C-alpha cells in the first residue's frame, strides 16, 4: 500500500519544487502513473480482504472506488488549468496541494481496515474540500455554501463517532473483517433504533438523502471545477461506501429501520429529477441529478441483497464518471460565456461540434443508455427494489423516465437550436478539454465491455 | 543615595507617578480596541448575522448574466421584458447600472412625453401602436402587489401634423402606410382644419394629418417609476455607478471577403462607485447599451469604432447628445382643452400643459443653430427669435404670451438617420444596443425593450421585426430614414 501512498504524498514536494511552467505537466503525469497502481488490486482470489498492512486493506468494494479516486486526480488537475491561469504561482501550488491532500485522505479512507481510521479520514476529507470551495469558488455565496456543507456533514457524523466508540467498547475491535464475525443481533428496541440511526446518519447526509440534501446544490454550484468534480465523483461515494460497511454490524435491524429512508429515497428520486426539469442554472441541474442517482444507491445499500450491492457499486462508479464529465462540460461552457444559465448559450453544436459529441455521450450515459454501466447499475437496483416490494417499480420506472427527460432537455437546450447572436465568437475547444472528456468516457465504455471487475462481492 | 545618582528629570519620571498618566506602553485607543473586539465576538456568537467577508452591500454583485448600462426608460424596459419573457422564474440575473439615480440629466425626466403613430416607417408605427396598448394596459403589465395603481395622466388629444405644399404628397403616402399598419389617422384640408380648430391660422398649410386615437401625451416620470418598481419586484439588481471599463477577449478572424476583423467578447464590466475610486468587476455574459445620450462613450469603451474608417471595425456608433429646449408659457386666450400636439410646417411644436392655459413647446434647431451639448443651460433668445414668430404665425392668440419657465434636455440623436439602433453589434458579439432614438425613445421604449429581450432569449425578433434598425446599416450605408421627425 505504501506504493500508492508514498507517491501521492510525494506529489506535494513535486508541486512545491517544480518550476512554475512545469507544475501542471509534472503533476498530471505523475498522478496518471499513480492511477495505474490500484489496477493491481483488482485481481482478488477470495472475497476476504486483501491486507496490504495491518491498517490498510482492499476488497472488491474498495478497489473500484479507489481506482475512481486515483483516476480522477489527473482529470481534476487538467480541468483546473484554465481558471487558475492568472493566479500567482503560490496560489496555484496551494490549490494543487489541497487537491493532493484530499487525494491522500481519500485513498486512505477507502483502504482503511479499522473503522476509527476510516472515520478520522472521512472527516479529514472535509477540510481541503472546504478550503477549495471557500477560497477558489466563484461567487460571494460560496461562504454560505461551504458553511452548509461543513455543518451538515459534521452534524451528521458526530453521532457516528459516538457509536463507533460504543461498538469498540462492546465488541473490543472495529476491524472490518472481525466485525462481520463478531456482531450481535440488533433488535428493535429504542436504544438499538437510535444506534442504527446514529451509525447511518452521517452517510445519509453524505449521499445525500433527499431530506438532507440541501448542502449539495449550493456546494456544487459554488465550488470551482475541481471541487465540483471531486464532490460529485468521490465524496458522495464515501457515503455509499460507509453505509455498505456498517450495514454488516447492524443486522437484522436494517430490515425494520430502513423503511423511512427507503421511502425518502424513492420519493426524493422523483422530486429531485423533477426539479432538474425546472432548473435554469446548468450546474444546479447536474447537482440535482447527482442527488437523484445517489438516491438509488441509498436504496440499494439499504435493501442489502447481493444484487443490490453489486448494483450500488456499479452505479457509484458510473455516476462518478458521468457526473464529473457533465461538470467538466458545464465548466467549459462557463469559461467561454461567463454565465451558467442554459438559456444564454444555445445552439452550440454549430459552433463546437466535437464538444457537442461529448455532451451527447455524457447525456446518454446520464440517462442510463444500454449497454453502459449506468444502465447495468440502475437495472440491478431497480430489480432488487422490485423484489423487495412490487410497488417501487412504478416510482423507479418514473424516475428513469424523468431522468431521460431532463438529460435530453439539457442536451437540446445547450446544443441544438439556433445559435444565439452573442456567442458567435468563442474560443474553440482546447485539446486539453477534449482529452479530459475522452478520459472520462473511456473508462465507462471499457467497463461496459467487462463490468464484472466492478461488480463487487458477487461477480 | 539613588536619588543623587540618577539624573534629575529622569528620576522624577521613573520614581514618581504623575496624576493623569497611564502606566504601560500602549495608551493608544485602548477603548476603541476593546469595543472592536467586543463587536467581533458578538458577530461570531449565534443570533447575529456573521459576515466574515468584507461588507460589499453597496457594490453590485460579482456576477450577473446581463448588465444593462443605463437605467432610463429603455434600460428598464429591456430589464422588464427580459424578466417577463424568461420561461423560468429567476432564470437570468440582470443588473441595471445607472450613473445618476436622480435622473437629473436623463432624457426621460425632461421629456415632453408625447406618443404618436404618425411615422413614415412601418416599424416605428408598429412600435408606437404597441406602446399605446402597453400604456393603456399599464396596470396589468406593471402591477406590483400592495402598490397603488399607476396613473399615467394620459391626455388622448392626438397629434396634428401640418404640411406645406411641398410636403403634402409625402404626408399623404405616410398616412396611407399608417392606416395600413392600423393607426387611426385622418387627413384634413385647411377648411376642415379651420372648422375643427378655430384658433388655427392655415396660411401655408396644404394638408394636415390628425391622429384620432392612441395619440397624445402622458407623464413619463410615472412610467419610469412604475417600471422601476415592477422591475425591482421581479428581482433585477440595481446599482448606482458608472461603467468605466470593459474587460474583453478578442479573436482575429477573416470574413468571407478576406477582411481581417477582430471579434470581441466582453467578459467583465467595471462599475465605479460614485465619488470614490472603488470599483467592482462584474462578470457578465451580455451587455446592453441603453445609455441614451452617452451611448457613444460606452460603445467607445468596448472598442467599437477603433479601426480604419470605412471598415466595419472602424464604424462608430453615431449617437450624439443634442440639446433641445422646451419652453412653458402662459396664454389665457390660447387654444382650448381639445388642442392636440401641433407640429407646424416650420418645425415648431406646442401642446397644452395642464388646465391653466399653459402650453409647452419648442422647435428642433437646424444644423447650423445646434446648441452646445456640454451643459443644460437654456437659451431664451432662441425662443424669442426662432420659436415665437412661427408660433404666433400659426396661432394668432400666441402673439401675447408670457414664458413661465424653460428647460433643456438631451436627445440621443442618431446622426446617421435619426432612428434607433437595436440589436447586437456584429463584432463585439455580446453587446446589444437599445439607444439612439433621437427624441422618440420614450414612446417606443416598451416595443424596443421587448424586441431586445426576444433577440436575447429567442435569437431573433419575434413580434415586431426591427432588422432595419440593426447596427450593420451604419457600415453598409443604407439609411432607415424617418421622414416625420419632430
TrEMBL record, chain A:
Membrane topology: Multi-pass membrane protein
InterPro entries: NADH4_N, NADH_Q_OxRdtase_chainM/4, NADH_UbQ_OxRdtase, ND/Mrp_TM
Broad EC category: translocase
NADH:ubiquinone oxidoreductase chain 4 N-terminal domain: residues covered: 1-109
Subcellular localization: Mitochondrion inner membrane; Mitochondrion membrane
GO MF term list: NADH dehydrogenase (ubiquinone) activity; NADH dehydrogenase activity; ubiquinone binding
UniProt keyword list: Electron transport, Membrane, Mitochondrion, Mitochondrion inner membrane, NAD, Respiratory chain, Translocase, Transmembrane, Transmembrane helix, Transport, Ubiquinone
Catalytic activity: a ubiquinone + NADH + 5 H(+)(in) = a ubiquinol + NAD(+) + 4 H(+)(out)
Spans traversing the lipid bilayer: 21-41, 61-82, 94-112, 118-137, 149-168, 194-216, 223-244, 256-273, 285-303, 309-330, 351-369, 389-414, 435-457
GO cellular component: mitochondrial inner membrane
Domain NADH:quinone oxidoreductase/Mrp antiporter transmembrane: 112-399
EC number, UniProt record: 7.1.1.2
GO biological process: ATP synthesis coupled electron transport; electron transport coupled proton transport
Keyword Cell inner membrane in record: no
Subunit structure: Core subunit of respiratory chain NADH dehydrogenase (Complex I) which is composed of 45 different subunits.
Similarity comment: family membership: Belongs to the complex I subunit 4 family.
Known role: Core subunit of the mitochondrial membrane respiratory chain NADH dehydrogenase (Complex I) which catalyzes electron transfer from NADH through the respiratory chain, using ubiquinone as an electron acceptor. Essential for the catalytic activity and assembly of complex I.
Protein name: NADH-ubiquinone oxidoreductase chain 4
Gene that encodes the chain: ND4
Amino acid at each position: 500500500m505504501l506504493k500508492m501512498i508514498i507517491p501521492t504524498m510525494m506529489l506535494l514536494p513535486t508541486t512545491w519544487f517544480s518550476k512554475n511552467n512545469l507544475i501542471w505537466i509534472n503533476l498530471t503525469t505523475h498522478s496518471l502513473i499513480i492511477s495505474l497502481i490500484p489496477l493491481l488490486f483488482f485481481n482478488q482470489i477470495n472475497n476476504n480482504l486483501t491486507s496490504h498492512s495491518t491498517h490498510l486493506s482492499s476488497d472488491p468494494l474498495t478497489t473500484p472506488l479507489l481506482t475512481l479516486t486515483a483516476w480522477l486526480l489527473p482529470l481534476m488537475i487538467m480541468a483546473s488549468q484554465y481558471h487558475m491561469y492568472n493566479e500567482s504561482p503560490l496560489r496555484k501550488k496551494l490549490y494543487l496541494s489541497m487537491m493532493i491532500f484530499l487525494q491522500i485522505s481519500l485513498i486512505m479512507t477507502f483502504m482503511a481496515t479499522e473503522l476509527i481510521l476510516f472515520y478520522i479520514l472521512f472527516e479529514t476529507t472535509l477540510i481541503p474540500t472546504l478550503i477549495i470551495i471557500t477560497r477558489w469558488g466563484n461567487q460571494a455565496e460560496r461562504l454560505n455554501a461551504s458553511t452548509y456543507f461543513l455543518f451538515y456533514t459534521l452534524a451528521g457524523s458526530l453521532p457516528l463517532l459516538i457509536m463507533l466508540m460504543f461498538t469498540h467498547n462492546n465488541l473490543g475491535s472495529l476491524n472490518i473483517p472481525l466485525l462481520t464475525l463478531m456482531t450481535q443481533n440488533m433488535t428493535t428496541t429504542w436504544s438499538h433504533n437510535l444506534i442504527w440511526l446514529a451509525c447511518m446518519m452521517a452517510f445519509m447526509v453524505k449521499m445525500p438523502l433527499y431530506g438532507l440534501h440541501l448542502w449539495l446544490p449550493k456546494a456544487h454550484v459554488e465550488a470551482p471545477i475541481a471541487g465540483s468534480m471531486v464532490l460529485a465523483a468521490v465524496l458522495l461515494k464515501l457515503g455509499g461506501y460507509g453505509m455498505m460497511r456498517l450495514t454488516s454490524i447492524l443486522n437484522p435491524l436494517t430490515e425494520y429501520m430502513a423503511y423511512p429512508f427507503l421511502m425518502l429515497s424513492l420519493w426524493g428520486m422523483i422530486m429531485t429529477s423533477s426539479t432538474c426539469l425546472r432548473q435554469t442554472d446548468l450546474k444546479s441541474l447536474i447537482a440535482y441529478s447527482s442527488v437523484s442517482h445517489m438516491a438509488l444507491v441509498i436504496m440499494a445499500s439499504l435493501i442489502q441483497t447481493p444484487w443490490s450491492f453489486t448494483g450500488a457499486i456499479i452505479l457509484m462508479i458510473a455516476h462518478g464518471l458521468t457526473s464529473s464529465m457533465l461538470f467538466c462540460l458545464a465548466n467549459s461552457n462557463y469559461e467561454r460565456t461567463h454565465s451558467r444559465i442554459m438559456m444564454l448559450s444555445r445552439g452550440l453544436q454549430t459552433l463546437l461540434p466535437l464538444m457537442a459529441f461529448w455532451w451527447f455521450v455524457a447525456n446518454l450515459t446520464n440517462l442510463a443508455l444500454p449497454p453502459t454501466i449506468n444502465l447495468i447499475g440502475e437495472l440491478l437496483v431497480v430489480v432488487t427494489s422490485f423484489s423487495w416490494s412490487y410497488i417501487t417499480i412504478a416510482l423507479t420506472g418514473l424516475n428513469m423516465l424523468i431522468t431521460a427527460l431532463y438529460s435530453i432537455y439539457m442536451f437540446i437546450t445547450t446544443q441544438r437550436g439556433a445559435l444565439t447572436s452573442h456567442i458567435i465568437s468563442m474560443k474553440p475547444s482546447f485539446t486539453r478539454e477534449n482529452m479530459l472528456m475522452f478520459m472520462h468516457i473511456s473508462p465507462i465504455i471499457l467497463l461496459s465491455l467487462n463490468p464484472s471487475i466492478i461488480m463487487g462481492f458477487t461477480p | 543615595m539613588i536619588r543623587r545618582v540618577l539624573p534629575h528629570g529622569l528620576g522624577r519620571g521613573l520614581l514618581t507617578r504623575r496624576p493623569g498618566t497611564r502606566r504601560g506602553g500602549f495608551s493608544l485607543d485602548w477603548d476603541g480596541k476593546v469595543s472592536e473586539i467586543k463587536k467581533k465576538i458578538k458577530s461570531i456568537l449565534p443570533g447575529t448575522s456573521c459576515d466574515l467577508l468584507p461588507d460589499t452591500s453597496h457594490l453590485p454583485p460579482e456576477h450577473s448574466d446581463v448588465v444593462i448600462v443605463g437605467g432610463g426608460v429603455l434600460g428598464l424596459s429591456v430589464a422588464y421584458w427580459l424578466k417577463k419573457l424568461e420561461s423560468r422564474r429567476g432564470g437570468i440575473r440582470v443588473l441595471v447600472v445607472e450613473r445618476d439615480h436622480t435622473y437629473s440629466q436623463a432624457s426621460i425626466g425632461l421629456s415632453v412625453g408625447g406618443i404618436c403613430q404618425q411615422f413614415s416607417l412601418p416599424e416605428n408605427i408598429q412600435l408606437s401602436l404597441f406602446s399605446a396598448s402597453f400604456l393603456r394596459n399599464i396596470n396589468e403589465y406593471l402591477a406590483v402587489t400592495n402598490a397603488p395603481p399607476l396613473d399615467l395622466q394620459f391626455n388622448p388629444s392626438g397629434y396634428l401634423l401640418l404640411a406645406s405644399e411641398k410636403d403634402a404628397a409625402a404626408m399623404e403616402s405616410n398616412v396611407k402606410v399608417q392606416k395600413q399598419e392600423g393607426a387611426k389617422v385622418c387627413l384634413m384640408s385647411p377648411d376642415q382644419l379651420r372648422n375643427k380648430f378655430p384658433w388655427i391660422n392655415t396660411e401655408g398649410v396644404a394638408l394636415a394629418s390628425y391622429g384620432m386615437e392612441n395619440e397624445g401625451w402622458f407623464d413619463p416620470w410615472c412610467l419610469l417609476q412604475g417600471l422601476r418598481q415592477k422591475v425591482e419586484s421581479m428581482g433585477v439588481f440595481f446599482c448606482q455607478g458608472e461603467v468605466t471599463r470593459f474587460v474583453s477577449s478578442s479573436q482575429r478572424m477573416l470574413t468571407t471577403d478576406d477582411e481581417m476583423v477582430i471579434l470581441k467578447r466582453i467578459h467583465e464590466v467595471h462599475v465605479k462607485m460614485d465619488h470614490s475610486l472603488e470599483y467592482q468587476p462584474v462578470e457578465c455574459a451580455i451587455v446592453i447599451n441603453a445609455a441614451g445620450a452617452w451611448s457613444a462613450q460606452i460603445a467607445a469603451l468596448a472598442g467599437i469604432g477603433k479601426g480604419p474608417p470605412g471598415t466595419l471595425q472602424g464604424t462608430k456608433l453615431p449617437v450624439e447628445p443634442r440639446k433641445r429646449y422646451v419652453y412653458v408659457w402662459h396664454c389665457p386666450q390660447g387654444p382650448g382643452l381639445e388642442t392636440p400636439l401641433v407640429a407646424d410646417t416650420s418645425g415648431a411644436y406646442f401642446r397644452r400643459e395642464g388646465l391653466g392655459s399653459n402650453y409647452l413647446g419648442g422647435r428642433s434647431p437646424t444644423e447650423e443653430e445646434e446648441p452646445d451639448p456640454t451643459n443644460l443651460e437654456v437659451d431664451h433668445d432662441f425662443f424669442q427669435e426662432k420659436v415665437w414668430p412661427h408660433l404666433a404665425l400659426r396661432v394668432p392668440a400666441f402673439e401675447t404670451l408670457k414664458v413661465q419657465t424653460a428647460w433643456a434636455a438631451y436627445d440621443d440623436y442618431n446622426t446617421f438617420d435619426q432612428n434607433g439602433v437595436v440589436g447586437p453589434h456584429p463584432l463585439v458579439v455580446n453587446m446589444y444596443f437599445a439607444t439612439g432614438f433621437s427624441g422618440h425613445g420614450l414612446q417606443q421604449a416598451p416595443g424596443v425593450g421587448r424586441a431586445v429581450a426576444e433577440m436575447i432569449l429567442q435569437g431573433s425578433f419575434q413580434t415586431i421585426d426591427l432588422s432595419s434598425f440593426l447596427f450593420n446599416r451604419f457600415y453598409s450605408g443604407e439609411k432607415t430614414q424617418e421622414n416625420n421627425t419632430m
